[in-house]
Structure prediction request, 598 residues.
Amino acid sequence: MDSVHAPTLTGPGQPSPPDHPPRPQPAGAAGAYTVLAGTLMSLVGVSWDVQWHVDVGPDTFFTLSHLMLYCGSAIAGIASLVMVLRATFAGRVGRPADPTVGGSPVRVFGGTFTAPLGYLVAGTGAALFLLYGLMDLWWHSLYGFDAVLNSPPHVALFISISLTMVGSVIVFAAARAQRWGRIGLVVSIPVLITFTPITTNAFNGVSPAIDPQLAGTVLFAVCFILMGGITLRRRGVALSIAAVLGVMQLFLWWFSPWAAKAYAAHVGLPLRDNLRHMPPQLPSGIPMFMLAAALVIEALLRLGRRRGWSGRWLPQLTGAVGGVVLSFSMLVQTSMLRGGAGAGPMGPSTTSATTVLTDAILGLAFGALAGYLAARFAVLLHLNAPATDQEGR
Amino acid sequence: MHLRTPLPPRPRPARTTRRPLKHRARVLLLALCTIGATILVSAPSAQAYAPVEIVHTEQVQVGPYHLTVGFSKWPLRAMQSLDFTFAPDGGLTGKSGILSMTGPGMQGGMHMGGPLSRHPRKRDVWGLDVRSLSTAGQWSFTFTINGPHGQGTGTLDNITILAQPGPPLALSWTLCTLPVIGLIAFLVVAWRRHRPSRHLTVVGI
Prediction:
């Protein structure tokens, strides 16, 4: 795979971007939102499926929640393929590639295909999902239908879906000069944030010193929110992303148990005995107080920019403070759900001075790393479609 | 009469054996369809909720209660899921209980388990549906049952779990982390090509 050094790709040492404003791209918006719809379907399907296993149990390869999950990847994959073929045929008839539609064009298979970077990543994720779906089927034939999230093929499937979500973020970031692109970015980032704890679940038990769920939540949530704020360079972006994340959490909190019970009633399966009033598993892992962390991130970014603080350390500082706030908020969230004295739906709380200190250090370290990465990812997103840098402010 | 106008030189294909784009697109679509069809064809056995078929039983005396423990697979293997059933003589009416499972590597009183619940696909007995035991070695199941004859406790010891089936776990994990390795490689290439640390001003910080 090689980047196409066409007049479209601008970066260090490349020609300047054209001055004219970007033309409206209805096909670009349609492709981008179809991929986003696919990732949303995958997210809802996973949350429903996890809740199904908690509340009901019996599993087949073709439960409705599984089908929703597969359809999500299929829709995102087909949309990506269509956009790649569209870019390829446009290149064949001599039309210049437009990096605002999916990002910089990349030559694939020796130039046979010209794939906008975002659609290439999203499509690769969807294709990998198909391949690992096959492996998952083989795994279940060997090990049975044990409902664990952290089996090797399940983790590979979640990573594949995450890749599609990353592709979706790249696609919308490339179209950030247009309103639909900015809205899409503010929605696609929370989808990715919501999905990451499922993957970090694979590291549970690896190290007793670090809680991989918390580390993953701090790293990815802070990184992606900060990346969105830096990429769009507008007021309120971090807060908007956090607000959308909250809306998604509320929806999944209601939908997942409802769908599990409604589907069980439809197929005539009973609910499990001894179901405690636990909060729905996947939505309860999403940060409930992300708005607080986003507020701190937003304030520090604005303060740093206004006072001209060095860009060498502003992202790390912002990330570290945001990480500590998020880490403490997760402590509060867990305590609330566990109910302090043991009266809560998740059993007794285990908060202690050591936990507070460990979580503070974890939030600081992973938050700073998130800040460092966020600024660099934002630069890469800008260089991927530089013609729009002057827009959106 | 034909007027011949000079044509601009056509770009030479990179490879002399290059096939037309449509052909390659067709091959790609065919490959995707083949994978999809393979999943559909190979999966019909996974479309129905499987009945619970017990192939082996063990007996345990839990205080005044006699309990039959059933397994849908035998011998047991690590990580391989199966259905467990726990059937007290006289049925479940008026009885409740707790199951505690201990195995290799569980230290300091660690255990798996919880309240005994009816099996989701066999409602006349208690059970665990498609549950696996993580490690090979000797496991024991301890039952506490409350019922009309009071409380009783009993343990089914020395349940042997053989090694996991299939390829070594390290190989499976290696195969399944390839997408992450690919993503990291992609980021490294983009990082080396654009050196984002040198262009932070691009994003206004």
Q: What stands out?
A: Strands of chain A lie at 2-3, 105-108, 113-116. Chain A has one domain: 2-17+24-388. Chain A has ten helices and three strands.
